[in-house]
Each structure stands twice: as C-alpha cells, then as structure tokens.
Amino acid sequence: MKNKLRQLRQSREWSQAELAERLNVSRQTINAIETEKYDPSLPLAFKIARLFKLNIEDVFEDKR
Amino acid sequence: MEKNCWNHAPARRYTVGVLGAMTLYTIALVISIRWLHHNPEAPWKYAIAVFPVLPVLWVPVAAVRFFREMDELQKQMHLEALAFGFVGAGVLSLTYGFLQNGGLPEVSWVWVWPVMCVCYVVGLVAAQRRYR
Questions:
Q1: Poorest-pLDDT segment among A38-52, B6-20, B79-93
Q2: What is the pTM of this model?
Q3: Relative to the CA of B8, which of A28, A49, B19, B103 has its CA 20 to 30 Å away?
C-alpha cells in the first residue's frame, strides 16, 4: 500500500526512532511501512493518521 | 532508547525470566541426578526425575507474554519464523525418516526440537531481511 509516512515524518523533522516512540512500535516497523514492505493494521493506520491530524486516506492510498 | 526486539523492556523481562528458569533448572537437575544416583529404587524416583522440569514451565509463559508485548510487525516476523520452523522441522524429520529406511544411522527423536529451533532461527533471519 502506498503511503506518505516518510514525507509526513520528515515534514515534522522526526527521526524514525522518534516516530516509533510516539506510536509505541519498533523503528523497524516504521521503516517497513515507509518502504511499503509492510502494511499496518487498521488500528495502527488510524493511530498514524491521528498523530498527523489527517484522515487515513490522506496518509494511505489503496494502490500498489 | 530505540525500541526493537532485543533492547526494550519486554525483551529484557523475557531474557531475565528465561535465564532465571534455566538457572533453577540446572540446580534442580543436579539435585535430581544426585538423588536418583543414591536412591535408584525409591518410590518417588519418577517425581524426582521430572522435578527439574518445574522451573522450565515458566519459559512458555514468558514466551507468550513476550509475544503479546511485541508490536504487529515483530509478531508477523515471529509468526512467519514459527511457521517455517514448525513445517521445516516436520519436512526434515520426514525426509530423514525415509533416509533411515535407506540405511542411514538412526537418530533419536530428541533431535527434532533442536532442528525446529534451527529452522525457526533461519525463518526469523529471513523475515528480518524481508522487512528490513
């Protein structure tokens, strides 16, 4: 699934580790989502969207 | 501190729990072996023989707790590794069973679990690389 997580994270000047800390996941999970190797669960996708004060569709795009 | 599989609090709790259980197991094993050596015909011998297993019962509990505290990608990787370990060990055991029919030396069934562990580690390394 395509996503804008890297751009959103970089716009806040957060490292992957900082974002991981805020979402209570591992840095590897953030990296795997950013590189589109792993699609997050719905609860984690909502958590990400809420963190950036966006709708889920603004972060994730259902196209490969 | 960066959170990954090995340096966050659940991993430390798991490691300490397993090391504690294995230490108690070693002590219990020495006591059990010495006791059985001096009392080979005692009516309690079977209870004493399995006595070292008691502290090891903590290990599966600790493993499940650790698994529950992982994040979703870590769970996914460990699940893939467990699937590979479980099925891989089954295939290898079956294959060696056929080879034994062909004349290879008999190997004790106790080796199945170590083979499963090796397959699990191989599966985990593969999963780590896949999601790196």
A1: B6-20
A2: 0.81
A3: A49
List, in sequence order, the alpha helices (H) in A5-53. 5-11, 16-23, 27-34, 42-51
Q: Which residue of A has its CA nearest to B130?
A: A37
Does the beta-carbon distance from A31 to B5 stay under 8 Å?
A: no
CA B110 vs CA A54, B96, B113, B116: distances in Å: 55, 14, 6, 11
A51 touching B (Cβ < 8 Å): no
State pLDDT tens for residues B28-39: 999 999 999 998
What ipTM was reported for this prediction? 0.89
Interface with chain B: mutation pick from A29, A39, A48, highest number of B CBs within 10 Å: A29
- Residue from the list A25, A31, A37 with its beta carbon closest to the beta carbon of B71: A25
State the helix-helix crossing angle for A16-23 and A27-34, rounded to 10 degrees. 110
Q: Are B71 and A26 in contact (CB under 8 A)?
A: yes
What residue type is B59 in one-letter code?
V
Distance of alpha carbon B67 from the chain centroid: 14
The closest alpha carbon to A52, from A17, A4, A15, belongs to A4
Residue B111's closest CA among B101, B99, B122, B119?
B119
